[in-house]
Design goal:
The complex is a heterodimer of chains A (419) and B (219). Chain A is an alpha+beta fold and 419 residues long. Helix content of chain A is 31%, strand content 24%. Chain A is flat, with a radius of gyration of 29 Å. Chain B contains 11 helices and 2 strands, in the order αααααααααββαα. The chains are: A alpha+beta (419), B mainly alpha (219).
Chain lengths: 419, 219
């Protein structure tokens, strides 16, 4: 009998539950829908508070008449009274690879009028005030810089904003800003002097230097870049730590201007310290007892190679190089290689493969075997796989980049002979 | 000095005794605000379910009680979630699926079982409220400590003195276990010699004993 009563209660309970869900759902459904709408527009009103309404003109994956919209752009809204555009951006180019979400407003004149950081999963903070530095900038973003020490995240942020502008400009919704010559030349540095950049991002501090409009010193101490007003236009003069100099114009072409080159040399001399003594000692240790290490003119490759030597070992002439690529957290690593006359690696050393060992333990590495594994490799047989360190990708990338730079350096001195 | 009733109430808090409901406690106690709303949602479920279990104790046999309560909870949890989504969307987003998990929480079932065995409605309500207050206290204390240590804030407001010493969100999980363990240890220290788990009307013991009885009957 009690079972029957229990079943009746169960059925009644079921009916009560369904009625409760149905009743509350009919009451809350329109409110939930309105909330969803408000959540969509809330970030938009945050960047254009005086907006009347917004028309969605682009959404990622949706049908649109807009063309050439970068995938960073998630949605574009036009403010209905003509105040401009609100753009939702999401980029995974930061350090963690998780999405940094941004909402920016661009006014009808093509300048940033609002900027909100909606999600920031990065480990290093680029500062609460950083997004606000973009306000008032046009697509040239002349007054915007990256944040030292947080270059991945700030670069991802800047590139996302540039993508937002690119979408508007490609569809003639706003006009493009005009970059100044010194901005063009500053952006050129990471292309023409890869030793001053990591993954295309400039790794340099701005320094004050006489005779320059702007000057930068590489964080690895490998060289300097000076933007010089030649009177005939702005020029970019580069000089490495060994005094090799080269000059470029705003078109990105090599320019013949010895005065600008001399300015860069003066900046280098005043701001860089030679690595020759330290590197000679390190290569002597690597070559072993009885080796004679003699400095030679380093090739003008403008990568991370900082010194070059001949290394006499048992009557055989080999070549020694040091490179300072960027590893974990963009800190410069020291890579030492001894190559034989055919360009095959004889010995490799990297005194500190893994930075912050005491905190960073998520890698597996037998350092001795790892370094010995490079012996015999040449520019042709060397691949990224030779550098793999499981759990320490940044360090592995640094090793790869340093060795590739040294092979390039070797190719420049091999046929020319030791200077 | 704590009086006997309070000592008993704390000592018999199902969360502290048998870690009932510890899953949502660890999941939603990253921030105090989330913990308060989770505690409120669970309290509503516990009290309504306990009253229902008491009111139907003469109609529903022990064997049928769990299915009946589960159906009731399904409706109640959905209702609570819909109301949160409509009127407290931020809280709804912060809590995620955990209010739904309360539908299968032993804390709720245990309290319902206990209610079905109690004599009068006043005792049922009082017992449920004490359980909910204890649950809420543990949840909120754990959340407050975690929020201060991991995020350097309290109720969403940054604490300047924690700006440079906070552990960060990476320490959420470990800090949850550590803080909960410390709270449990504190209770043991405050109530030396108490062994509330052996009490026959302990919520958890009631559920477990019912399960054993059912198995015996099947044999």
């Amino acid at each position: 009998m009690k079972n029957i009563k229990s079943i009746v209660v169960l059925v009644l309970c079921l009916a009560l539950s369904l009625a409760l869900i149905s009743g509350i759902n009919s009451h809350t459904a329109p409110i939930i829908e309105a909330n969803a709408g408000a959540a969509e527009f809330e970030p938009l009103y945050a960047v254009i508070p005086e907006a009347q309404d917004f028309d969605l003109i682009y959404t990622a994956g949706g049908e649109t008449e807009l063309v050439d919209v970068p995938e960073t752009v998630q949605a574009i809204y036009a403010e209905t009274s003509g105040l401009g555009y609100a753009i939702r951006l999401a980029t995974t180019q930061g350090y963690t690879g998780e999405a940094i979400e941004i909402t920016m407003a661009v006014d009808a004149e093509g300048k940033i009028s609002g900027m909100e950081l909606n999600s920031y999963p990065e480990t290093k903070d680029f500062g609460a005030d950083y997004p606000a530095t973009y306000l008032g900038q046009d697509s040239a973003m002349a007054e915007v810089s990256l944040v030292a020490g947080v270059t991945y995240s700030s670069s991802a942020f800047k590139n996302a904003v540039a993508d937002g502008f690119a979408a508007l400009i490609a569809n003639e919704l706003v006009g493009a800003g005009v970059k100044t010559d010194d901005q063009i030349l500053t952006e050129l540095i990471s292309t023409v002097y890869p030793g001053m950049a990591n993954a295309g991002i400039l790794q340099a501090e701005e320094i004050a230097a006489d005779g320059t409009v702007k000057a930068f010193k590489a964080l690895n101490g490998a060289g300097v870049a000076a933007i010089v007003d030649s009177g005939d236009g702005m020029l970019l003069a580069l000089c490495d730590v060994n005094g090799n100099a080269v000059v470029y114009n705003t078109e990105g072409a090599a320019a013949d201007n010895s005065a600008a080159a001399d300015v860069a040399r003066a900046v280098a001399e005043a701001n860089l310290a030679s690595f020759a003594e330290k590197d000679a000692a390190a290569l002597t240790r690597l070559a072993g007892e009885g080796a004679v290490v003699t400095e030679i003119a380093a090739p003008a490759v403008f990568n991370t190679v900082t010194t070059a030597f001949t290394v006499e070992m048992n009557g055989v002439t080999n070549y020694g190089f040091a490179a300072r690529p960027y590893g974990y957290s963009n800190l410069p690593m020291e890579i030492y290689l001894i190559l034989d006359a055919d360009g095959a690696i004889v010995a490799m050393n990297c005194p500190e493969l893994i930075f912050f060992k005491e905190y960073f333990t998520n890698y597996t590495l037998d350092e001795g075997a790892y370094k010995a594994g490079f012996a015999g490799l040449t520019a042709e047989s060397f691949t990224a796989d030779n550098c793999l360190i499981s759990g320490a990708t940044m360090s592995a990338n640094g090793v790869q980049s340093g060795i590739e730079d040294i092979f390039e350096g070797f190719s420049q001195i091999d046929m020319g002979g030791a200077a | 000095m704590l009086n006997i009733k309070l000592r008993t109430a704390i000592g018999e808090n199902p969360m502290l005794v048998m870690l009932l409901g510890v899953c949502p406690a660890l999941a939603v106690t990253a921030e105090l605000k989330s913990a308060v709303w989770m505690a409120a949602a669970v309290a509503a479920l516990v009290i309504v379910t306990a009253i229902f279990a008491w009111a139907t104790r003469a109609l529903v046999s022990d064997a049928w009680r769990i299915p009946v309560i589960l159906i009731l909870l399904a409706g109640l949890v959905t209702a609570v979630q819909l109301l949160m989504q409509a009127y407290l969307p931020d809280v709804y987003t912060a809590l995620g699926l955990y209010p739904a998990a309360a539908a299968v929480s032993l804390l709720v079932f245990g309290e319902a079982e206990r209610a079905a065995r109690l004599g009068n409605i006043g005792t049922v309500i009082k017992s449920s409220i004490v359980t909910c207050v204890c649950f809420a206290l543990v949840l909120c204390i754990t959340a407050a400590i975690r929020e201060i240590l991991c995020l350097g804030s309290i109720w969403g407001t940054g604490l300047e003195f924690m700006a440079n010493v906070k552990f960060g969100t990476g320490a959420y999980t470990a800090m949850g276990f550590i803080v909960l363990a410390l709270v449990l240890a504190l209770v043991k220290a405050v109530l030396p010699g108490k062994a509330p788990l052996t009490g026959e009307d302990s919520a958890c013991a009631a559920v477990l004993s019912q399960g054993c009885e059912m198995l015996e009957k099947e044999d």
